Amino acid sequence: MKTIAFLNDIHLDETEPLEHGIRPQENWKRLLDHIAHHHVDNIVFGGDIGGKNAYPWFFASLKPWGKNFHLLIGNHDNYDEAIKYYPSVNSELYYAYEDGHVKYIALDSSTSWISTTQLTWLKAELSTPKKILIFIHHPILEVDTPVDRVYPLKNREQVRDLLLTLPNPIHIFCAHYHMSDVQTQHNLTQYITPAASYQIKKQARDIEVDNSNYGYRLISIDEDRINSRIILLNNLN
């Protein structure tokens, strides 16, 4: 069995977490310590490292994971800075890899779009009989929450419609909304993971911060069976 820790939205070296009483560096240290006490094979970071001055510290903290660490970038991230630590062969940070039962596809939605070039690449990569795990910062399926109405993936319908043409089950692991959500549409199951910094209330009229907890998702893959669960820790206010 393979276990992946999916973490996202730490927002290091940004003013907003501090305004809400959040200490992102302390959160990050506690999360990595928590993961160290579980049997975890890989870490995938789902985007929004934060300010570029925090990049050296962030990547140094993940150096022990070596090739078992995979990176996505989000709308708060800087591609040129990120590839100094996590090189890319493309002009965007997208790539794919696979094992015996599952194909893993990492997409770059840092501009809030999936580019035409990336969509063409994605269509070719989707040609596989295996189950597919997609990692992306932005959710692809619509969610009834204020963040979705203001900061969605701009061409999500185009991405969704491409994925719906496939017979394979596709599991989408995403971030960006600072909340937990799971929904299914035909062959697609989308899992939004709570942020490593602070949450945003899902059922609210406007964007409203909840600073009580932070967390990550543990994904378990047993041959072609895929399960996951949320791990939440209390913020040290």
Automatic annotation (TrEMBL):
Record keywords: Iron included? yes
Keywords (A to Z) from UniProt: Hydrolase, Iron, Metal-binding
Establish whether keyword Iron is in the entry.
yes
Q: Read off the InterPro entries from this record.
A: Calcineurin-like_PHP, CNP_phosphodiesterase-III, Metallo-depent_PP-like
Could you say which EC number(s) this protein's record lists? 3.1.4.53
Task: Name the Gene Ontology molecular function terms of this record.
Answer: 3',5'-cyclic-AMP phosphodiesterase activity
| Record-annotated Calcineurin-like phosphoesterase domain positions | 3-179
- Pfam families given for it? Metallophos
State the family named in the UniProt similarity comment for this chain: Belongs to the cyclic nucleotide phosphodiesterase class-III family.
Q: Which PANTHER family match?
A: CYCLIC NUCLEOTIDE PHOSPHODIESTERASE CBUA0032-RELATED, PHOSPHOHYDROLASE
Protein name, as recorded: Icc protein
Q: Which species is listed as the source?
A: Mucilaginibacter terrae
Lineage of source species: Bacteria, Pseudomonadati, Bacteroidota, Sphingobacteriia, Sphingobacteriales
